[in-house]
Design goal:
Layout (H helix, E strand, L loop, with lengths): L2 H9 L21 H7 L6 H32 L5 H10 L5 H15 L6 H4 L8 H12 L3 H9 L4 H12 L1 H17 L2 H6 L8 H10 L6 H31 L5
Amino acid sequence: MIYPLLWMAVSSFRPSDDVFRAPGLRLTEAHPENYANGWNALTSPFGTYLLNSTIVVLGAIVGNLVSCSMTAYAFARLEFSGKKWMFGAMLITIMLPIHVIIVPQYILFTQIGWINTFAPLIVPKLLATDAFFVFLMVQFIRGIPRELDEAARIDGAGHPRIFLRVILPLMTPALATTTIFTFIWTWSDFFSQLIYLTSPDVFTVPVALRAFVDAQSSTDWGAMFAMSVVSLLPVFIAFLVGQRFLVKGIATTGIK
């Protein structure tokens, strides 16, 4: 499982002509200049694409944390007409692949004028469109004793205060799990970003890596693998830092 990653890391130090000639992990000569060449190979420095991905990821994380937590609280604690039907409809959306809805979404965002901006990748997150995270948080909130809500209500707290002062602080594992998953999935998302981003100035990391193959008749594989290693580092760091919260969040929400 880990062999392709090791091979990519080793290939990032090989000259392009030797990348596919030597499929093993043995490195006869190192070419660290691949990282410098890859950083400046495209129209903008690779740091621009890292910054673009960071903006999209932070927007998606904030959107999911705010909207999904509020939606989950409504499903878990409030009573309103059509609640079960709405919750069932939300769960059904988990089974819909993005390829089914990408065409109507693209038409909608084109009419709004959002194509070639980060808005189609961030704004929907503010509307609790990731049903998986809503379900995860609903399961977590249902495990919080209702006696805490009742005690806060006796003290005069309404639903906003109960949510902010009682429920939200206890949801740290679920919020951390949402943050980590959102980061990994958004950072690695290629299809949506390829559809909506058309200008090199707003390319994210996955789209920029694809440009290494499209921009040159003879691809500089060493430089491309070098930037692939750079793009994977944030994911590894995020997982290593948040692994404890990730395991705890999944284990305490009933998702096995």
